[in-house]
Amino acid sequence: MSERPTDVEILKERLSEDPSEEFLERIASTVVDEIAESFPELSLKVRPMADVLEEFREKKLEEVDTEDHYSTKLDYLQTCLLQEIGVETTEDLTSEDVERYEQWRKYDSLDREEPLSDNTLRDDKYLFREFIQYLFEHRMAPVRFEKSVEIPEVDYDAGEGVDEKKLDPEIAEASLEFLRKYKYADVEHVAMELMCHLGPRKSGLWGRDVDDFDYEEGILEFDHKEGTQLKNNDKSQREATLYDEVPDIVRDYIKDQRPPVVDEEGREPLLTKGDGRISKSTLQKIAYKWTRPCKVGLGCPHDHDPNECEAAQKNNAAFKCPSSRAPHHIRTGYITDQKNRGVSSDAIQQRCDVSPRVQDQHYDLPDSSEERERYEDEFKNADDDPDFGFSHA
């Protein structure tokens, strides 16, 4: 009877089989942890993140010629780590936080709805990676964090890339059906109804007040107000009709579930969880949370086990799901779907405040089948014309 191989022999065999980077990373982390226990002087330093960020800022600004340019980028970095994520010390920083920076910088950090350009994001990620390198060079973060910083590729020959993600209508429908059944008329349900029903900009939805909603008329008014400006100022002001069950859902939320909150300007924000106007980043999280297929009664299209998938288990990690979508992607999906249904560019311009040119460039993103189906009837009608040359030759 052969002897059972030892742990050392098993490890040596695995290492000889071209092991994955993940496997090597786990071994390296284990070794580092063991060494740190035996040699405390090699363990990671714990320092206030605000102090470290300030030191890095001073160092970086001494190296560059365009201080204003880099100062702005450093401001974003500081806002994300200290305010958005809430990292108090270097010990608190996790690999998940490092991965989250790109999503925050591309979408959540902007007042406008359109995401950050790939070119600008690429520059900001280089700076972010430099900061992570600064941390591990000074023994304040593990080396493996650098691998969590992926620099986006930009196809300069093809021009600035358009964000081609959009919410699939099937997921939108499943999400609203799930929320109507299990989360009826709570603030997250109402937010998703309005995002999927109107395709608004995140900032536009964020700025709505209770008195912008008219139940009797079934409309939501987008009014340009001090402190909650619309993108195109007065030109963005409009009324949008709410159809089907949506007016009743909004009314029931205001009547039964909305906390009686007044903001600093004496206005009643429409979307609130009880602590003032809901934040734009919270709207972002709501969108990611309720566009995960596995959370709204659909199977996982990526063959992940929801019980083991971080994106499925943690709402704060919902953005990691390949199928989850931000408010911008819901807006894109809504506009594309309306175009597929034959709604005119002028009608979409009135409802969504986006010009036909920008619709074509950023929001109308049909796949090949959808594009074919849009024009199918035109060719069929032409083919039925007895004077049409090629078909009747």
Work out the number of β strands: 3
Strand content: under 5%
Output the helix-strand order. HHHHHHHHHEEEHHHHHHH
The percent of residues in helical segments reads 40-55%
Strand order of the largest sheet: 1-2-3
Structure classification: mainly alpha
Spatial gap, N to C terminus? 83 Å
CATH superfamily of the domain at 169-327: Intergrase catalytic core
What oligomeric state best describes the polypeptide chains here? single chain
The number of helices is 16
Rg over alpha carbons: 26 Å
Largest sheet data: 3 strands, antiparallel
What fold name goes in the CATH topology slot of the domain at 169-327? hpI Integrase, Chain A
CATH architecture of the domain at 169-327: Orthogonal Bundle
| Overall morphology | globular
Average per-residue pLDDT, rounded, comes to 84
Just give the CATH class of the domain at 169-327: Mainly Alpha
Protein name: Core-binding (CB) domain-containing protein
Region (Disordered): 334-393
Keywords: DNA recombination, DNA-binding
Biased composition (Polar residues): 335-348
